[in-house]
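> example.struct
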C-alpha cells in the first residue's frame, strides 16, 4: 500500500484535530479521557463514566454532542424510572381514533444516562437493544435510532447508597469504562474563581452528524495486519485462561477492541493500526467485562481492582514488533 493511501486527507486530519481541541477545551487537563471518549464515538461505541459527582461527566457528554452538531438529551435515572420513560409510549388520541407513538428521549444523537445504576435492572435493560443494534422495539414495531447514536452513561461508585449493580450483559454493551478524576489544581482554581463561565457554549461546532457518520465508516477501512490480529486474539484468550479471572472477555469485547484500535489509528492520523493502538486500549475496554476469581460470590470488585488484574494479564502477552 502506498504512503499516500496510508495517510489521512489533510482536511480529515484537520477536522479530527479540531474535534479533539474543541472537546478538550471543555474538559481541560484531561486529554487522555477526551481521546478515549473520541475513540469510542468514532468507533460507534458507548462510554460508561464511573466517578464521584461533580468532576465533569455531564460536561464531557455535552461537549461531545455540541462539537459534532448533534442533539443531546439527558435522562436522570432513578429507582422509579420506567422503561417507557426512556423508550417512549403509545398514547390513544381520541380525536384521531388511534394510538400515536410518543418517542422517548432515547431518540437522539447523544443520550446522557445520568446515574444509570440508580435505576432498577429492568429499566437498565431497556437500553440493551438500542446500544447493540441502534434500534428500539415498541408495540410490535422496530424503530431505527438516529445516526449517529452515542450513549454516555454515568454511575456512582458501588459503595454509594441507593445504587444497583449493572449486570454483565449491560456492562458488555459499553465499549469503555472511564474515570475522569479531579482536574489539575491550576484548572480547578480557575473554575472555582469563575464558576459562571459556560464551557459548553464556548465549544465550537466542528462537524455535523452526517460528517461524523462518514468518519465512523472511514474507521472500518483502517487496515489491521495478521500479526495484530493474532495479538488481539492472544489478549482476549489470556483473560479467559488467567487464574486471576473467573470470567474473561467476550467475543464482543474483542470486536470492540479491534474497532476501537482502528478509531485510535484514525484519530492519530493513520489508515493502519499499530500494536500500541491495541495495547493502550486493552484495559479501558476489557476491565469492566471480566470477573475476578479471588473474591467471594456476590462481591463487586472496584474499578481499580479489575483494571489492575487486567493490566497484569495484558503485560504478560508479548507485543508484536
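> example.seq
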Amino acid at each position: 500500500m502506498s504512503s499516500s493511501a496510508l495517510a489521512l486527507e489533510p482536511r480529515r486530519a484537520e477536522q479530527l484535530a479540531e474535534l479533539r481541541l474543541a472537546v478538550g477545551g471543555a474538559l481541560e487537563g484531561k486529554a487522555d479521557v477526551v481521546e478515549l471518549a473520541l475513540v469510542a464515538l468514532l468507533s460507534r461505541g458507548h462510554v460508561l463514566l464511573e466517578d464521584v459527582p461533580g468532576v465533569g461527566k455531564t460536561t464531557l457528554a455535552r461537549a461531545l454532542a455540541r462539537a459534532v452538531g448533534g442533539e443531546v438529551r439527558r435522562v436522570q435515572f432513578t429507582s422509579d424510572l420506567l422503561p417507557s420513560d426512556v423508550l417512549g409510549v403509545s398514547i390513544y388520541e381520541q380525536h384521531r381514533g388511534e394510538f400515536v407513538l410518543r418517542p422517548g428521549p432515547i431518540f437522539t444523537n447523544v443520550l446522557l444516562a445520568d446515574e444509570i445504576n440508580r435505576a432498577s435492572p429492568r429499566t437498565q435493560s431497556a437500553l440493551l437493544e438500542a446500544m447493540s443494534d441502534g434500534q428500539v422495539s415498541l408495540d410490535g414495531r422496530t424503530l431505527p435510532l438516529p445516526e449517529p447514536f452515542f450513549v454516555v452513561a454515568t454511575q456512582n461508585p458501588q459503595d454509594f447508597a441507593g445504587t444497583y449493580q449493572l449486570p454483565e450483559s449491560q456492562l458488555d454493551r459499553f465499549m469503555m469504562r472511564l474515570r475522569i478524576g479531579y482536574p489539575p489544581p491550576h484548572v480547578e482554581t480557575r473554575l472555582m474563581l469563575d464558576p459562571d463561565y459556560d464551557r459548553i457554549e464556548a465549544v465550537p461546532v466542528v462537524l455535523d452528524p452526517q460528517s461524523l457518520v462518514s468518519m465512523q465508516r472511514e474507521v472500518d477501512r483502517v487496515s489491521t495486519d495478521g500479526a495484530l490480529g493474532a495479538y488481539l486474539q492472544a489478549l482476549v484468550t489470556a483473560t479467559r485462561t488467567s487464574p486471576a479471572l473467573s470470567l474473561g472477555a467476550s467475543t464482543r469485547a474483542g470486536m470492540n477492541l479491534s474497532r476501537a484500535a482502528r478509531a485510535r489509528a484514525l484519530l492519530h492520523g493513520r489508515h493502519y493500526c499499530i500494536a500500541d493502538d491495541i495495547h493502550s486500549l486493552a484495559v479501558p475496554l476489557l476491565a469492566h467485562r471480566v470477573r475476578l476469581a479471588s473474591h467471594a460470590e456476590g462481591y463487586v470488585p472496584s474499578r481499580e481492582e479489575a483494571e489492575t488484574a487486567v493490566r497484569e494479564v495484558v503485560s504478560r502477552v508479548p507485543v508484536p514488533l
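> remarks
The chain has a mean pLDDT of 88.
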